[in-house]
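Summary for the steering committee. The consortium agreed at its last meeting that each partner would contribute one worked example illustrating the joint modelling workflow. Our contribution is presented below. We chose a case with several input lines so that the handling of multiple components could be demonstrated. No manual editing was applied between input and output; the record is shown as generated.
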Amino acid sequence: KAGVTQTPRYLIKTRGQQVTLSCSPISGHRSVSWYQQTPGQGLQFLFEYFSETQRNKGNFPGRFSGRQFSNSRSEMNVSTLELGDSALYLCASTLDGGSGSTYNEQFFGPGTRLTVL
Amino acid sequence: SQQGEEDPQALSIQEGENATMNCSYKTSINNLQWYRQNSGRGLVHLILIRSNEREKHSGRLRVTLDTSKKSSSLLITASRAADTASYFCATANSGAGSYQLTFGKGTKLSVIP
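What follows is the complete predicted structure of the assembly.
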């Protein structure tokens, strides 16, 4: 099976612009989560989607948003970029049978490196 | 917020030696997962241990979990230069079908050939 894919791998934007990142989960996985990784804050949870619905959201401003499509692919958007948004954005997919089990492993993609100038 | 705290923050060993990393967390968990990350790349899933398990093995990896002490350890036996990476523990808290992971700050392991 192909792993989690993320596009693009690298992005350079300027302050005030917006950006959209894409994630394709492992085939059959219905849950997609997004994380931000920075040297200062480490890995932080952004949000999680299942069946096109946001199930959980981390402590990030409203400039960070996401969505999930019917084929489980997900996108996240950051509007009005700030210098502090420079980070590695990681997407993870999980096989979720819908029973509410929290025992399933999360598999991560290679990440999108966003640089805001 | 960071729940897990790995210890040590950095570890340098010779090839062939064993490496032990520890992780502590604060709240009740459903499971704990260990990940490896090579130099700014994606996270590679290593092992998941459930809250009702005490020990788990996978190849050269051994993970223990002590829920009474809210701690876990990852042992890598017979280390190789290719094991050089950052290692993170991540906890999954209870929640209605949510997979929010809370990560520690990681242990940077250097294996010297």
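The longest strand of chain A covers residues 42-50. Chain A touches chain B at residues 4, 31, 33, 35, 42-45, 48, 50, 55-56, 58-59, 88, 90, 92, 94, 96, 98-111, 113 (CB under 8 Å).
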